Amino acid sequence: MRSLTFPCFLRHRISIFSGTGSPLTAVRLSSLATDLELPPITSDILLDSIKSSQWHIVEHLSDKFTPSLLSTTLLNLVKTPDLALGFVNHIDLRCLDFQTQCLAIAVVSKLSSPKPVTQLLKEVVSSRKNSIRDLFDELVLARDRLETKSTILFDFLVRCCCQLRMVDEAIECFYLMKEKGFDPKTETCNCILSLLSRLNRTESAWVFYADMYRMEIKSNVYTFNIMINVLCKEGKLKKAKEFLWIMESFGSKPTVVTYNTLVKGYSSRGRIEGARLIINEMKSKGFQPDLQTYNPILSWMCNEGRASEVLREMKEIGLVPDSVSYNILIRGCSNNGDLETAFAYRDEMVKQGMEPTFYTYNTLIHGLFMENKIEAAEILIREIREKGIALDSVTYNILINGYCQHGDAKKAFALYDEMLTDGIQPTQFTYTSLIYVLCRRNKTREADELFEKVVGMGVKPDLVMMNTLMDGHCASGNMARAFSLLKEMDRLNVNPDDVTYNCLMRGLCGKGNIEEARELMGEMKRRGIKPDHISYNTLISGYSKKGDTKHAFMVRDEMLSLGFNPTLLTYNALLKGLSKNQEGELAEELLREMKSEGITPNDSSFCSVIEAMSSLDAEKSDS
């Protein structure tokens, strides 16, 4: 009788069970099968299953695999990494021990495509069960077991960290490579530089770039483009332009992307004439400006209400606006309150065969809420839903915040529940909006409960959330809770700002505790937080309400000495104080001063002056 390998044995057994014999026989055989002792699983048997793509067998037996068996099998698949990938994909990588995981990654890294190994690395890195150093060291051991000289695996590890936005871990891997004498590829370094730039960590980008230079890692055109972008972000436009010469001296010729980066840098700072000079230089070098050249200029000019100039210039050189251009136009019009033109651009976009994006809809919805056109926003939402487009987190946040700003807690919380049902994770912004509407409706107890729920879920409150909740308690006069939140901010390492203290000062002044508010301004200064015009206006208003115009004017003088200009609020607060004390002549004098400063009095101003003057008129009539 011929011997059977495990896969053959299993196939033979299945054919018996699925035969056309009597049901009773089949049942007996099936019962017997459960008592059969299967041959021990060896690497040869497992390899036979893998090579014949018997993945159902591999999956069925995966819980019987030992680290030793898996390691031996993976080492036998070094020359066929595609089969190794198939094997790994049919077992759960997370169930493997750390050493075997790293060996599997090392074998799969031999594939020509970097995608599979990067995906495996992401799974291991994202689990965060081991430090990056531990992972690096274990991958070094796995590489040694494969007896290969290639260090590409470590480049993949750095790029994986960059894709996960784990820039500090990526930099750590880079220096670990340096310690081992491995030479990182220029493209790998570019990944780190690009991420540092996107995260606005410009100083770290220069430190890293200097280390690249010291390690004699050659920069390419992409490296220089990234560093030009870094200079533009820092506002060093002259140096960014000079970098073109440095770039060429190292043998890298600028590309369209290089010039577009400079144009964007100048445009984002409102230096439109400088941007146009870059475009002229670009043309002189034989490069044709494209939409990526003009869209940044369009963005700035749109905010200035001069979009038509750029559109005309684009048309003259044959450039047709794309979806990005239209979204810029729609955003600019929405921000300026010109919703009619914004929707006209949306319609024009559709006529040109471009589907509005989430960004388009979100911009329009936000604009409608800003203009208090709630019904129109709801009609647009229905239009989106009718198209079968599922709302994203940004849309939900815009809607929830919109309803919260208008005091409609019911609709806001209904959308929050829908958000959860749709499996979309609420953000800090979502919770801040909900806390705001609860506080606005004087439901501070419910706001506290929601806040505790957020903290309990592991969401770290940010400054805006803390200030929102504190302001709610200050408005309701619950100063004890407001000050307890200040202590909680210290505990959570959330640094207070001028808004925090202005809330507390306003709350104290509302309760008539002006001197406590004044002392709080001193604490504010000791913390290194500079009071602003709101801080001073709050104190002025507090003193004026008590009729203490002497101290109110003293605070006003201090405010002026620090370079803060008085506002309508400043003058109205002082006028109310004078009115309370029936100091008509001083009120008239202050009104004249107000007008001389170019501040137009409102109804409140005139009412205060009239009330102050009424006592003066009464005195004259009595005399």
TrEMBL record:
PPR repeat placement: 150-184, 220-254, 255-289, 322-356, 357-391, 392-426, 427-461, 462-496, 497-531, 532-566, 567-601
Gene3D superfamilies reported in the protein's UniProt record: Tetratricopeptide repeat domain
InterPro entries for this protein: PPR_rpt (IPR002885), TPR-like_helical_dom_sf (IPR011990)
Source species, domain of life: Eukaryota
Pfam families for the chain: PPR (PF01535), PPR_1 (PF12854), PPR_2 (PF13041)
TM helices/strands, residue ranges: none
SUPFAM superfamilies noted in UniProt: HCP-like, TPR-like
Keyword Nucleotidyltransferase (UniProt): no
Keyword Repeat set for record: yes
Keywords per UniProt: Repeat
Cross-referenced PANTHER family: PENTATRICOPEPTIDE REPEAT-CONTAINING PROTEIN 3, MITOCHONDRIAL (PTHR47941)
Family: Belongs to the PPR family. P subfamily.
Name of the featured protein: Pentacotripeptide-repeat region of PRORP domain-containing protein
Lineage: Eukaryota, Viridiplantae, Streptophyta, Embryophyta, Tracheophyta
